[in-house]
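Minutes, project check-in

Agenda point 3 was the complex the collaborators sent over. CS summarized: two entities, 934 residues total, and the question is how they sit relative to each other. Sequences were read into the notes so everyone works from the same version.
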Amino acid sequence: MLDKFLIFSFGGRVIFSHKFDCEIEGEPVNELISNILIEDRTGSVKEYVHENYKMKWQIENEFELVFVVVYQRMLQLFYLDKLLELLQENFLNFAREQINKLDNPNKFALSPSFFSLNKLKLPDFRPHFLQILEQVEEYDKRQKVATKMRTFDKTDKYKNTVTAVKDKDGVGKKNKKKKNKNQNDQDEESDSEESNSESNSPSLTKKKKISKSAKRIKKLQERQKSGGRSPKRNLRRRGRGRGGRGGRGSKSKKKIDEKPQKKIKKPMKWDNTLTKSERRELDQGEKLDQMQMKEISKQNSQKLIGDKKLNLDFSASEGEDDDDYWELSNDEEESIDEEEEEEEKEGFKVNLDSLKKKKKSNETKKKKKGKVANFFKGLKGNKELDEETLEPILEKFRDHLISRNVDSEIAQKISDSVLLGLKGKQIGTFQRVVKIVREKIEEVLIKILTPKRVVNILRDIGISKKKKEPYSIVFVGVNGTGKSTSLAKTCYWLLQNNFTVLIAACDTFRSGAVDQLRVHSNVLGVPLFEWGYGKPPANIAQKAIAHAKSNNIDVVLIDTAGRMQDNELQMRALANLIELNKPNFVAFVGEALVGNIGKDQLIKFNQGISDYSKTNKTQLINGIFLTKFDTIDDKVGAALSMTYSSGIPIVFLGVGQQYVDLKKMDVKMISKTLIKN
Amino acid sequence: MRTKETLEPILSFLPFSLWANVSILFAGVLVVCLLIYLIIKLFGRMKKSGEPSILIVGSMNTGKSCLFYQLNEGEFVETQRSMKEQEATFAIHEKFLKDKDPKAQKKKYHFIDWPGSPSLRLRLSDFYPITEKIVFVVDGTELDDDTFELFYKLLSAQKLKEKKIPFLVVLNKSDLIDSPDVKPMEKLFNRELSQLNKTYASTSFTKEQEDETENEITQLLDESEEFSLEKLQNTISFVKSSTKNGQIDEIIDFILN
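CS then shared the predicted structure for the full assembly.
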C-alpha cells in the first residue's frame, strides 16, 4: 500500500530508501522538502499532498534526519504515524548496535555528521524495515477485524429495554414483539461474525473482549443512530449543549431509569429563598469551569500522546475532527482507554521491551567512561531541548509577535514549527536557550519572507522589450489601500530606469479616479489612456495594451477599482479583466495597517481570480505591494501574515506619499524588527 | 620560612591570614585557567586558518551535494534536495588524485555545500569572509533565471570582489544528451548578466544609511560599456562535468591550484 520510504539527512544524503512495487512519478519528496520542511511549516500540517502522492514524515533533530513515507493520495492509512515512530527508534538503535559491534566503538559517536558523511558504512537496514512494516500492517488488520458488530441481544440497550419491559406489564408486551422481530433478523448475521471475532484473538479472555468490544460497538451504534455524526454533535442537536459529563451512556441510562417515575418539573425560584444545593445547581459558571478544566486536560493529554504515549487508536473514522474523537474518549469511562492500552502493549510488548533494554544498556555504557572526560563533556553540553524548556519561551515569543501585529494563528503555527525544529537538539550548557530560540525564530521568519523565486521586474521588462511586447502590470486590492498612489510611484521608478510607460485608467467606478491619474500623468509626463467613467474596465485595458504595442511603449500600468474580497460580482469582473488581458504581473496592493484582515483579503482575491476564470491555468497574484509602511513603526507583522498564508512574496513597500517613497522589501530588516524586544 | 617571608609582602593586600590568601590566590588562578580552557573549547569550532574554504553553490537540482559526496567518497550517492548547508574538512578522495603529486593527496580542504533553495540563501553571505574559491554548479539542461540572479549576486558581493575570489562555473550533468558546450554557455552568461547589470543601476532606489551591504546587489560594470565577464576582477572559468559519473577532473584541478 505504500509507494516509498526514505531516510535522508538535512544535508541531502539519502541514507536508506525502499521502493515498493510501483515507480514514483516526479519528485514528490523534493516538493515536500521545498514547500514544507525548508519553510518550517511542519507545525501546521501533518501530511503533504503533491499530485497523486501523499506524504507523512518524522523529523529527528538530534541527528538531523528525516523519515518520509510516500503513498497514494486516495488511501487513508492510520498506522503511519506509529510506523514512522517505530522505524525512527529502531533505526537509531540499529546504528548504535553497529557501532558497538566494532572493535573500537569509541571512535564513532552518533551525531549528524555520522549519518551525513557516512563515517561508518551501515549494513542493509532493509530486513529490519520490512519486519517492522509487516508487524504494523498485521496489527492494523487485526484491529479492523476485531471490531465487528455484536448482535442486538448482547447490547446493553436490549438488556435495559427487557428489564424495563419486565417492570411494566401491559405496555411491555408490544415492545417485546418488536424486539423479537429484530432479533430474528440479526441472528442470522451474527453467528458467522461471532465465530470470526472469537478465533482471531485467543489471548484475551472472552469477558474482557466482549465488554471492550461491547463498548466500541455501542459507540458505533450511537454514531449510526445519529446518522453518522458524532455523539457530541448529537448532543448539541438535542439541545443539551457541551459539557455533558458522563457521556451518552450514562445519560441514556438516566432517562430509562427515570421513565417509570415521571419527573415533575419544579417551578423556578426567582427570589432569594434558594438553598445552597439549589444555588449550586443553577450556577452555570462552575459547570463552565469544569468544562474548561476538562478541555485543558484534554489538550495536555493530546500533547503527551503526541510525544510519549504509544496509543495505537485506530478507531477514529475519517471525516471527523480530532476534537470529536477526543471528546468521545473523554466522555467514555476511562477504563476503555486503559483496556485499549493494555491490548496494544500486549501486541507490541516484544518490540518495545527489547528497544527499551537496548537504550538502557547504551546509557550505562556511557557512564563508565572517565570521570574527568565526563566532567568536561558535561560542560561541553549534552543538554537536550525538550518541550518543557521550550514552551514558556515560545509563548513569550508568540505574544511578542502578536504584539507586533502578526496573526495569532500564524504566530502559533510558527511557534509549533520552531518547537518541532528544536526538539531533541543538543546544546552546550553555556548557550542560553532563549538565544537559540531567538536565532531559530529569526531564521524561520527570514525563510518565510524570502521569496521562493527572485522577482526582478526590471529584468522581465527587458525581456518583454526584446520580444517587442508591452509589459503590463495590474494593480488590484480593496478600497483605499493606495493603488493609484502605488501606481504613480511605480511609474516614477520605471521612468528613472529609462522605460517608457503608459497609464491605463481602468478604475471607471470611483469618482475622481480618472482625474487623479490625469494629474499624475501630467506631472510625470506620461501618456494616459482613459475612456471616462462607466465603461467596462476589461475592454479599456485591452485597448490600452494594443495602443502600447503599436506605439512601442515598454510598460502599461493598469489601475483597477477597489473591491471587497467577498463581492462575487466584482471578483468576477476582475477575473475577467485578468483573463482577457493576461498581464505579466498582478500586484496586490495591501495596507500594512490593517493586519490580519489583509491576509484574508489576499487569500480571497487569489481564490477569486482563479475560481471565477474560465480557464484552468490562470494568472494568480505575483507580488504584494505593502503600502503605508511608514505609519506602523515596528508593528510589521502584517507583512509576515500575508506572506506566510499565501506564499506570495512582498515586492515593494510604500513608505510615504511622495513619488520617491517606494522601497524594495528588505527581509532581514523586517525579521529583525519583528524579533527586537 | 623563606617562602613565607617572600610571600607576605606580596599578599599583604588580602585581608585574611597568609595561608588563606595563598589558597584564595591558587583558587583564583585555577578558575582563570578553567575559564580560558572553556573559552577555547567554545571558540574551537571556528575554522583553523590553515585549510582553504571552498564554497559549492548554485541553483536547486544542479548536483552540488552530489559533487560534495564525490569529493569525499569517490562514488555517486543518492541525494534529495538539501535543507541545510553541509560543511566538512577532508582531503579529496584518492581516486581523483592518482596522477597528482603526493602532497596534494594529503592536503585537506574545507568544503561548504550550500542548498540551492532561494529561501535559504540569506545566510550565505556569512561565509564570504572565509571563502577562498567558489565552485558554481549549473545544470546545463535546465537553466533558469535564478541561476543568473545568484551568480550576479555572488559577483557583486563586496567581500568576494576585494579578495578577487576565482569562480569556476561547472556545467554539470554532461552525461545528458542535451547538455550544452562551454563556449555557447559563456556567451549566454555574458548576455544574461549584461541584462541583469542594467537592472541594478545605482539610481534605482533611495538608500538609507543603515542599509546592510552584504546582501545588496550593486552594479558590476557601467552600462555604457559592453558587458563582458572578462572585465570583472574575479577570474571566471567554465568547465563541463558529470558528478554522477565521477568526471570531475577539471574541478579537482581548479581546487588544487
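Noted in discussion: Chain B has eight helices and six strands.
Follow-up: revisit at the next meeting once the mutant set is ready.
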